[in-house]
């Protein structure tokens, strides 16, 4: 069968889409919102649970800690139970807490503290900057020079990280701990977590992943890794700066968290207010301070939508949407455009990197034409057809808009900062 690049073809795909009706539950402003891997939109469900917590605050005041439904006191753990099926692990191993960057600090710090001697830490060249900043800071705080103790796996092509290179590095160097992204924020490559985890186990390397660009769109089975972190405002749609989360494999329960705080104390005795700290016997120990209820509540409703749609159905539609987007780019855009995302489904997350030397101006022109996407330096137009609210018709409209801009040269009139010149 030849590929159908017509608008009718897109609409026919929408007719067959089992998740099509979920879009009604999201407030995407007019136009094409293809930026859900930066900030997912508000859903009526997230609004409902946020409103409920505000109502509980109004009605119960401080008693919300015990009388909220669910009680605020254990809300981080409650959300952890709800997140666990997306990660293929037990509820006790997951907690909603802190921010992603803070979770990297406390988890990397925690595991560095378990090591003897000078630690060697593996990261990758293409990771999101905050991950590297936090890892370096944790090394420095323990008196180590990051330039000395970090092994950075390099990319061959500026787009992807070879799992074989990671495994070879584990084999050659005595790596104590690794932190890698599940999906690279720029190219959208999905790393083979299983393969890396197996090698990490073999070489006795503590293995952590940052799932910021995969949680909520790619199903996971994390039972073979040691820890993970993520944010909830991308594919989980929990709102700007929403509470983040972390996973700690149960074999590490009882380890002292690097950034200890009373909210991670054993819950039953937390309010005895002892001067000695007893960490909770679950991932809840990696909480630090009071759960931020107003940035946690929207995650509950947002998870209702994800759970109702089902993570496997979400992944299936995500792959179909990105496949379709890539096929349209191949078919309709000229030679100056290249797809920087791996074409094998098993190596692709939820977004697509379309490369062009004038990407920054093109993103500004797209915005002026009502299409919201990201520019990522130096040359990436980053497009996220998030499955819960993006249709095949939206993808088709997007490529048509991009093609019009490219053909007319409309982007040449835009300054990289978005102003028309
Ligand atoms: C989005 C993202 C973050 C964000 O960290 P915050 O602490 O929420 O600002 C961290 N790491 C990766 C890989 C990301 O994609």
List keywords for this structure.
seven-stranded mixed sheet, Aspartate Aminotransferase, domain 2, Aspartate Aminotransferase, domain 1, 13 strands, single chain, 2 domains, globular, 421 residues, alpha/beta, binds pyridoxal-5'-phosphate, 13 helices, four-stranded antiparallel sheet
Structure notes:
The chain has 421 residues and is an alpha/beta fold. The chain folds into 2 domains: 128 residues, Aspartate Aminotransferase, domain 1 (Alpha-Beta Complex), CATH 3.90.1150.10; 261 residues, 3-Layer(aba) Sandwich (Aspartate Aminotransferase, domain 2), CATH 3.40.640.10. It has 13 helices and 13 strands. The strands form 3 sheets. A 7-stranded mixed sheet has the order 2-8-7-6-5-3-4, with helices on both faces. The protein has a 4-stranded antiparallel sheet with strand order 9-10-13-12, covered by helices on one side. Strand 5, helix 9 and strand 6 form a beta-alpha-beta unit. Helix 1 packs antiparallel against helix 13 and helix 2 runs antiparallel to helix 10. The mean pLDDT is 96. The site of pyridoxal-5'-phosphate (PLP) has 13 residues, from helix 5 and helix 6.
Sequence of secondary-structure elements: HEHHHEHEHHEHEHEEEHHEEHEEEH
How would you state the average pLDDT, rounded? 96
CATH topology of the largest domain: Aspartate Aminotransferase, domain 2
Low-confidence stretches: none
Q: Which molecules other than protein and nucleic acid are bound?
A: pyridoxal-5'-phosphate
Q: In angstroms, what is the radius of gyration?
A: 22 Å
Would you report the number of β strands?
Answer: 13
Which structural category fits the helices and strands? Answer: alpha/beta
Percentage of β-strand residues: 5-15%
What is the number of helical segments per DSSP (H or I, 4+ residues)? Answer: 13
> What does the overall shape look like?
globular
Oligomer: single chain
Strand line-up of the largest beta sheet: 2-8-7-6-5-3-4
Task: Give the C-level CATH assignment of the largest domain.
Answer: Alpha Beta
């Amino acid at each position: 069968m030849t590929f159908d690049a017509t608008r009718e073809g897109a609409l026919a795909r929408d007719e067959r889409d089992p998740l099509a009706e979920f879009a009604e539950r999201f407030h995407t402003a007019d136009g094409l919102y293809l930026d859900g891997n930066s900030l997912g939109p508000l859903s009526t469900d997230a609004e409902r649970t946020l409103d409920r917590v505000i109502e509980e605050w109004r009605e119960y005041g401080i008693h919300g800690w015990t009388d909220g439904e669910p009680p605020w006191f254990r809300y981080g753990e409650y959300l952890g139970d709800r997140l666990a099926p997306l990660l293929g692990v037990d509820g006790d191993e997951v907690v909603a807490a802190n921010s992603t960057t803070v979770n990297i600090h406390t988890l990397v710090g925690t595991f560095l503290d378990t090591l003897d001697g000078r630690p060697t830490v593996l990261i990758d060249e293409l990771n999101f900057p905050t991950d590297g900043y936090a890892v370096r800071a944790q090394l420095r705080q323990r008196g180590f020079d990051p330039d000395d103790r970090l092994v950075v796996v390099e990319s061959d092509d500026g787009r992807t990280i070879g799992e074989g290179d990671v495994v070879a590095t584990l084999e050659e160097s005595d790596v104590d701990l690794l932190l890698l992204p599940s999906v690279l924020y720029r190219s959208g490559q999905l790393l083979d977590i299983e393969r890396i985890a197996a090698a990490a186990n073999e070489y006795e390397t503590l293995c952590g992943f940052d799932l910021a660009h995969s949680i909520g769109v790619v199903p996971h089975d994390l039972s073979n890794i040691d820890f993970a972190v993520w944010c909830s405002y991308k594919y989980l749609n929990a709102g700007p700066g929403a509470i983040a989360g972390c996973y700690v494999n149960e074999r590490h329960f009882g380890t002292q968290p690097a950034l200890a705080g009373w909210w991670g104390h054993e819950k039953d005795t937390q309010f005895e207010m002892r001067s000695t700290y007893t960490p909770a016997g679950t991932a809840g120990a990696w909480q630090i301070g009071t759960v931020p209820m107003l940035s946690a509540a929207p995650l509950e409703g947002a998870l209702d939508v994800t759970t109702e749609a089902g993570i496997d159905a979400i992944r299936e539609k995500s792959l179909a949407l990105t496949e379709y987007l890539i096929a349209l780019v191949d078919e309709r855009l000229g030679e100056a455009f290249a797809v920087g995302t791996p074409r094998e489904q098993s190596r692709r997350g939820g977004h697509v990197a379309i490369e062009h030397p004038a990407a920054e101006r093109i993103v500004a022109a797209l915005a002026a034409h009502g299409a919201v996407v990201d520019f990522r330096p130096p040359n990436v137009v980053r497009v996220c057809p998030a499955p819960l609210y993006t249709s095949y018709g939206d993808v088709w409209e997007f490529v048509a808009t991009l093609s019009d801009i490219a053909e007319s040269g409309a982007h040449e009139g835009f300054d990289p900062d978005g102003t028309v010149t």
